[in-house]
Amino acid sequence: MINELIIIIFAPLIAGVIAWALDIKGIRELLGVAGAALPLAYLIKLYPTVDAEGMIQYTLNFAGFTLEFTLTHMSWIFAMIAGVVGLAAVLGMVSTSKNGYEWLFALMSLTGVYGIFIAYDLLGFFIFWEIMTFGSFMMVLKYNREASLKYFVLSVIGAYAMLIAIGIIYAKVGSFSFIEVYRAFSQDAALAAVGSSTLFSRGEIALIFGLFLVAFGVKAGMFPLHVWAPDAYSETNQSYTAMFSGVLSKTGVYGFILIYMLIGYRLLYEFGTIRTVPKFGYIIAFLGGLTIIVGGILAALQEDIRKLFAYSSISQLGYILVGIGVGTALSIEAAIYHAISHALFKGLFFLIVATIIYRTGKTEFKDMGGLAEKMPVTFAMAFVAILSLAGIPPMVGFASKWLIFESVISQNMPILGGMVFFGSAVGFVYLIRFTYAVWFGQRPTDLDDTKDAPLPLAIGMGILAVLNVVFGVAPGLVAQELNKIFGREVIGGTIWELNLGFGKYNGLLLTVWFVVGMLIAAIVYFMGAGVRKVPVTDTYQSGNPVTMEYNLTIRRNFFLPLKEALSFWLRMSFDRFYKDVGKTVEDFAETMRNYVYNGNVQSYAWYLAIVLLILAMWGV
């Protein structure tokens, strides 16, 4: 009998291969949905066992190597993120996918994600990391070669960084097993504490951390390794991007948590703390804070809704990195909570974007408006997503952001707290524009016949929207599962309430007040509140002379004054910097090809003679 963990991991890939081989419309979609639904069903089935026994283990011997798989409370939570959002994204792809190619590589990347979350050794972790990367790369390649190349280069850098770090660990420990690696680093920390010689030197520990920081930072879209994400997220099937942003980015998050689990004690002893935060964690948290700010500001400046939510996704991932970096039990639970929130509301947003593009063919603000009347179901889904991302109760986004705020403030970290607060303020800025420019105002005449979401997309959006509400109204459902990771009550309260001892959040009570407020607003509106129609050409000049060239509306160049104010900082582009570095390397390679590797056999003979002469002089 095939082990259940193996079914969870490989079911999507097998379904994708069959869908690609047959490539029959209808059958490939059925296979795709089955390939995404089966792992989710098994995860739900295995929950009682994980809850009772703490873990489920399986060992696979393959080609002389032993691969260990373990489903723990934490890996179950992350796998459920992949299962739920992956299924919703696949339902979206039923409407938006074009051929078996997309089903093959979308489901291949989902297999990679499951493998990463369930792998219990560094070798298996790396193998599935590459499977995930290859599948997602091929999805981007189909739509945009330049975007896929950027993603490929950054991913290769991250993969080599991880491979070198794993190689260093294996050379010292002699095992890939998470248990053995954890034991080796914990013993190393104990030896260092009593002044004995250690297995890893200070330099080696710093190098391993730096390499993992790069490897996981690339996938998590961490500043300044984020430059691939805006193009990759926007230049592929937008239903797949719900999985790309909502699920694949969590592998980087999971990797950062593994740093704490496997080598955290050694890093903490070697480098100490800043106040109560580990120094290595503060690096992660500070880079996360910068990610929040940079991603948020760049999101506000976008004219394309795909790019807006791509940069917004990067910004929201920064919150998770801040929580992980602070390194307390509360902050890590808050980070995982926000990983769940991010997957739900970002997955929902990209399915909304997929629906808009599918029905209108438009991607820019200037071409939209008044879609709420024509797409009421999609607008309702967007309303939920907007409230959740903005951190407005009673949505799940508020609960997770509140926990991150509290965890940062409780450790007296004002700089990190300021970064997190700034990110929330910027989030309101770009969401206000998205709300009005896309859904309200005058509708262009070419959108008068626009239809609402097709059924598969509507079901996918509905799944994520319901969970955004449920986990916000009843945040204790999530908190109780997170507490099982640490084996104690880190976040107290009930199903409806989160209680930290120094702060409370009651989702049910706030829901009641929210509904009452909405009813009062509706009564005031229908009793004759003053309403006026605002023409699509209603402009503002932000203190500039009224000219045809400087004509700002909600749909066109709305944040141009902000862009001008930040022009000095916007010139400092890491994207441009990486391109310049790449061009320099390319020019150097071309010079080497012209003067050294020129294809001339006589030149190579002279090179050999010179090398032999040097070796002879050294007495080799």
Secondary structure layout:
Layout: H1 4-22, H2 27-53, E1 55-62, E2 65-72, H3 73-96, H4 100-118, H5 122-143, H6 145-173, H7 178-193, H8 202-219, H9 229-234, H10 238-271, E3 273-274, E4 277-278, H11 279-300, H12 305-326, H13 329-360, H14 371-374, H15 376-390, H16 396-410, H17 414-439, H18 455-473, H19 476-486, E5 492-493, E6 497-499, E7 504-506, H20 507-526, H21 560-565, H22 567-570, H23 574-595, H24 601-617
Antiparallel strand pairs: 1-2, 3-4, 5-6, 6-7
Poorly predicted residue ranges = none
Distance between the termini: 59 Å
Q: Quickly give the structural class.
A: mainly alpha
| Helix content estimate | over 70%
Structural overview:
This protein is mainly alpha-helical and 620 residues long. The chain is built from 24 helices and seven strands. It has helices at residues 4-22, 27-53, 73-96, 100-118, 122-143, 145-173, 178-193, 202-219, 229-234, 238-271, 279-300, 305-326, 329-360, 371-374, 376-390, 396-410, 414-439, 455-473, 476-486, 507-526, 560-565, 567-570, 574-595, 601-617, and strands spanning 55-62, 65-72, 273-274, 277-278, 492-493, 497-499, 504-506. The strands form three sheets. It has a three-stranded antiparallel beta sheet with strand order 5-6-7. A two-stranded antiparallel ribbon has the order 1-2. The radius of gyration is 26 Å and the shape is globular. The mean pLDDT is 87.
